[in-house]
Design goal:
- With 360 residues, the protein is of the alpha/beta class.
- Helices cover 29% and strands 20% of the residues.
- The strands form four sheets. It has an eight-stranded antiparallel beta sheet with strand order 14-13-19-10-11-18-15-16. Strands 1, 2, 3, 4, 7, 8 and 9 form a seven-stranded mixed beta sheet that branches.
- A hairpin with a 7-residue loop joins strand 5 and strand 6.
- Helix 1 crosses helix 2 and helix 4 runs parallel beside helix 6.
- It starts with 6 loop residues before the first helix and ends with a helix.
C-alpha cells in the first residue's frame, strides 16, 4: 500500500484493499492521497497510518491528514524535538517517529537512486541502499579515468549517514508527544530485527515504569552486536554535525553472527535450524531473556537420526542441549571474531554472514 502508484497500479491496489477487508489488519500504512481516498471508500473501517514518505514536517500538514480521517502519522525524519512538540500541541491523532536504523539521505525516503542504478525502487519497498555505496567521478572525455571525490584517499561517502539510535533519549520523545516508535528494518535479517526490537521493547517497558527511566548498559552492548554504520541521533537535536556522516568508508559493523533458530523444544534438547556453520566446542550465546550475555559451549550435536555430529553447516537441522530459559523461535548467535580466527586456522570457507544472506 505504501508506494507511489501509477495508473497501471490502481486496479491491483483496489483488489488488495478488498482482500484487506477480509483480513482486517490493525491498520494500513500509505503515503499517496489517491490510495488514501480509495482505501477510505472501499474499506472505511480500516485505520490508516500516513507514512514518513508523505513528508509531514509542519502543523498544517498534520491537520490536513487528521481532517481526512487518518488515525496516525509517521513524522518526517527531518524534524527536531521542538517541532514534534509543536505538532503534538496542534493535533489529536497519533504521532509516530523513527528511533533506530538506517537514515535515508533523501527527504524521508523519497529517493530515486536505487531505481536509477539498480532498477529497484525505494518507493515500492525494494531499495538497495545505493546511497551507501562508494562513488567516484569520471570526466566525459576521459573514459576510464576515475577520480575520487574524496574526504580521504579511499573515496567519499557523503551520501551515507550513520544509523539512527535514540535508545538513550526515549523520555525526550515521550515528552514531545510521540505515541509510537518505529524501527527501520528494511533488507535486514532476523538477527537484526529480533535483537533490536527486543532491546527497544525492554526500553519502552522501562519508560512506562514509575521508578524512572535508566539506560541499561546491556542494551547498548546488544545494539552494537547488530549491523550498523555507527550511530547518530539524526535531526532530533538540530542539524547533524559532519561527524554524523560515514566519511571513514567503513562497511556495516556487527560483532555477532546469527548461528541458528530454535524450532522446537524437547525437554532439555532443542531442534535447531542452522544459519551458519557450527562445530562441537564452539562458544555460543542465546537471545533469550536473562541469559543474553552468557557464553555456552556446544557439547553434543546430533542429526535427525540421532547420529553424533562434529560439525554442521548452514541450513542443516541439528539437535542440541539448551538452557531452560531458551524458548521456541529464540536465536543463537556467536562472536564474529571467533569464527574469523577459526577460519584462518582450518581453512573453512563455508560460514555465511547473516546480513549477506538476508540480502540474497
Amino acid at each position: 500500500m505504501n508506494i507511489f502508484p501509477h495508473n497501471r497500479d490502481m486496479r491491483e491496489i483496489e483488489e488488495h484493499i478488498e482482500f484487506l477487508r477480509d483480513v482486517r489488519p490493525d491498520a494500513v500504512i500509505l503515503s499517496d492521497p489517491g490510495v488514501f481516498t480509495t482505501c477510505r471508500k472501499r474499506a472505511p473501517e480500516t485505520d490508516i497510518h500516513i507514512s514518513t514518505q508523505a513528508n509531514i514536517t509542519n502543523i498544517e500538514a498534520a491537520r490536513f491528514w487528521q481532517d481526512l480521517g487518518a488515525k496516525r502519522i509517521i513524522l518526517a525524519r527531518e524534524l527536531s524535538l521542538d517541532e514534534i512538540r509543536q505538532i503534538r500541541e496542534a493535533v489529536t491523532l497519533e504521532l509516530e517517529a523513527f528511533v533506530h536504523g538506517s537514515i535515508c539521505l533523501s527527504y524521508s525516503g523519497r529517493c530515486y537512486i536505487s531505481s536509477f542504478i539498480a532498477s529497484r525502487s525505494a518507493n515500492t519497498g525494494a531499495c538497495t541502499n545505493s546511497c551507501r555505496w562508494n562513488y567516484r567521478l569520471m570526466e566525459e572525455k576521459r573514459p576510464g579515468e576515475y577520480l575520487p571525490v574524496f574526504e580521504d584517499d579511499r573515496g567519499t561517502y557523503i551520501l551515507s549517514s550513520k544509523d539512527l539510535c535514540m535508545i538513550e533519549h526515549l523520555p525526550l520523545l515521550a515528552d514531545a508527544g510521540i505515541d509510537s516508535v518505529k524501527i527501520e528494518g528494511r533488507m535486514k535479517g532476523i538477527n537484526y530485527v529480533a535483537g533490536v526490537v527486543k532491546v527497544y521493547r525492554e526500553a519502552l517497558d522501562s519508560l512506562a515504569d514509575d521508578r524512572g527511566y535508566g539506560v541499561n548498559p546491556r542494551w547498548l552492548r546488544e545494539l552494537s552486536m547488530f549491523s550498523s554504520r555507527g550511530y547518530t541521533t539524526g535531526m532530533f537535536f538540530g542539524r547533524q554535525p559532519d561527524m554524523d556522516y560515514n566519511f571513514d568508508g567503513e562497511s556495516y559493523r556487527m560483532s555477532h553472527d546469527l548461528v541458528g533458530v530454535i524450532r522446537e523444544r524437547q525437554g532439555s534438547r532443542a531442534k535447531v535450524a542452522l544459519r551458519s556453520r557450527l562445530d562441537a566446542g564452539d562458544p555460543i550465546e542465546f537471545l533469550s531473556p536473562g541469559i543474553e550475555e552468557r557464553l555456552f559451549t556446544v557439547e553434543t550435536m546430533t542429526d535427525e537420526e540421532g547420529g553424533i555430529l562434529a560439525s554442521a553447516r548452514n541450513e542443516d537441522i541439528i539437535f542440541m542441549q539448551v538452557p531452560d530459559e531458551v524458548r521456541v523461535h529464540d536465536l543463537i548467535r556467536r562472536q564474529k571474531n571467533f569464527r574469523s580466527a577459526k577460519t584462518k586456522e582450518d581453512g573453512d570457507r563455508e560460514d555465511h554472514d547473516c546480513y549477506g544472506k538476508a540480502i540474497r
